[in-house]
Design a protein that fits this description.
Elements lengths: L9 E2 L5 H11 L9 H21 L7 H25 L4 H24 L7 H25 L2 E2 L7 H18 L1 H5 L2 H37 L1
Parallel strand pairs: 1-2
């Protein structure tokens, strides 16, 4: 029997999940009828281009980072409601939505880091590339784990996309208040914490998959 596709069913709960569910339930029917689920998904392209533009403008005036934070909020809202709109109207494209939604999440992440390239002092640029590799590794881990378990986990230890977005907004605010040179010195510590978190997540994931394999081997041996 073929296993049903479960890419639209997210596993794990972040710190803000209960509030998000209430927020979506209260406002999903307020989305205009002309605004379809795929429109909301594709809006991430607009937000990504805007982030790069505002990051470029922030070279001359760091206050443009407020615009970057605003676009992070915009992307959060469209990402939060695209699936909900499809489910409510029964117009969702489950597999297309899974593919495009998460591919564009990666595009948006790249646009944020590209935006920071413009304002981070040159000696810290290589750390920004390392940050892209690390956060990309978190996404790769999620997709590979989904391929083996058919359970798409987006939150680990209560930390998910919403909390990551909030972290970027906090970083933007700190850069505006204290200056990008000061905040750039924190990059090595952020990288260290992120690397440690990745190691823990990968260890936890591979242990779960190992146990699945061992359980399957036990079942196969009993059937022989």
């Amino acid at each position: 029997m073929k296993t049903p596709f479960a890419g639209d069913k997210k596993v794990g709960q972040s710190l803000f999940t209960p509030l998000e569910k209430k927020f979506v339930a209260a406002f999903v029917d307020k989305i205009p009828l002309w605004l379809e689920t795929y429109h909301l998904t594709l809006m991430t392209i607009i937000w990504s281009l805007g982030v790069i533009l505002f990051g470029y403008l922030a070279q001359a005036n760091i206050q443009w980072l407020w615009g970057v934070s605003a676009l992070i909020v915009c992307q959060y809202i469209t990402d939060l409601f695209d699936g909900a709109v499809g489910r409510m109207r029964n117009t969702g494209l489950i597999k297309w939505g899974y593919y495009m939604d998460h591919f564009l999440d990666y595009v948006f992440l790249c646009s944020l880091l590209i935006g920071y390239f413009f304002i981070v002092p040159e000696r810290f640029v290589y750390l920004s590339f390392a940050m892209l590799a690390l956060y990309g590794a978190f996404m790769v881990n999620s997709f590979l784990a989904f391929a083996t378990t058919n359970a798409f986990r987006i939150a680990v230890f209560g930390i998910g996309p919403t909390e990551i977005r909030l972290a970027f907004i906090i970083v933007n605010t700190l850069i505006i208040v204290f200056g990008n040179s000061y905040m750039s010195q924190l990059l090595p510590y952020v990288l260290g914490i992120s690397l440690l978190a990745l190691i823990v997540v990968v260890y936890k994931t591979q242990k779960e998959i190992w146990q699945m394999d061992m359980e399957q081997k036990r079942k196969d041996s009993k059937n022989c």
